[in-house]
Amino acid sequence: MKDGTRMTPPRNMKHDILEKLSQTMYSFKAYPEDDDFSSVAKPLISKHPCLTEPGPQPGWCGLKNSLKFMLANYRTKLRKAGCEDVTINGGKRSKGNPEGESSSKNIKRTKRGEANYLPNLPKGHDETSLENARKVLVEEIKKKRQNGILLSQMMDKSFPLRRREIVKQEPAVQNMVEQWLALFMERQVFAEFNRIASKSLEGDFFKALDQYTPRFIELFKTKKGTVGQKLTKLMQHISWMTPDVTALRSVVLKDISIVVGDDSSEFYKTCPDTARDEALEAITIGVLTVVSEDSPHQGPSSMNLQPISTAIILERSIVIDDIRDLPQAVCLLFGLTYALHLDYPKCMANTLEFIQTVMLGLGKKTLPPKLLSLKNSLLG
Hints:
Elements: H1 11-28, H2 34-47, H3 61-81, H4 84-87, H5 127-142, H6 148-157, H7 159-169, H8 173-179, H9 186-197, H10 201-222, H11 225-235, H12 245-259, E1 268-272, H13 276-281, E2 285-291, E3 309-314, E4 317-320, H14 326-339, H15 349-359, H16 369-379
Parallel strand pairs: 1-2
Antiparallel strand pairs: 2-3, 3-4
Helix pairs in contact: 1-3, 2-3, 5-6, 9-14, 10-12, 10-14, 11-12
């Protein structure tokens, strides 16, 4: 420590160090990114300066590269052992499999902070036993008075089977509705999100939304030009004397999409009750608000705080209806993108990514300029 003498660890010692680190990293994420490797290698050198590598570089780049190779070897061992989250990416092009798919193409890995991306089947169970649990769910959901405890138990038990089907086969949403109807209950959407991301979606979503709302409103008032006009038009729906919580949440969610450059008109749809079927044809994924015939429903800046119904649309079909309000519908739809392993719709990709990374703290650390600017303004 005094004279900066470096240590050259024996080969077996270095192997043990890298192996333990790679095993620990894998327990968090099967496919870490470059920043993740840096965040492991750098503190190791800080704590044990004798392991610093010679040369002009920071002193831990070689360790980081070695760690990448060690983790790749560890994944190969796990793939041979049958671990689901790495086995799914087996069969890629290699010397032994020259006709396989490109090693960098269609890799199935965590991208949005999923803690349980593709779990193994539970010990003592196989696909047949979990399929029986799914059948129990189907029969229970048909009953007028359902056993909520049994539903939750069977959903927990069948999670690995359901996740395997969703990630590997990427079925149509309508097929999932037929096979796993219980997944589209509000309570189970939040439970499924917790299974995947280990977070309380409903609690964390509204806590962050309410916490940042005052700052959001201040930022929106400072915007000028076309964006400022759109924001002002939406904020006219808020009564500042006794602001309604639902109105505030709805305005903030719609205003975020304007600030980050999304076209929310393709996502938030409103229609009179007589034109519901026509509206379904015009929306692939989003929130449909149904209002009465004499309601001022036209225009993207209309809030419609007392609708007849609010529904979530996926692949032009209603999957959850009679939701209490628009913010709850956005929260549920966000949860369904995780539960069904869906890509964010292009028209709202920035907004949903902002909710994911900033409001819920999930996934990647680097953000596009627009989202980073809003984050800095919000937290600054």
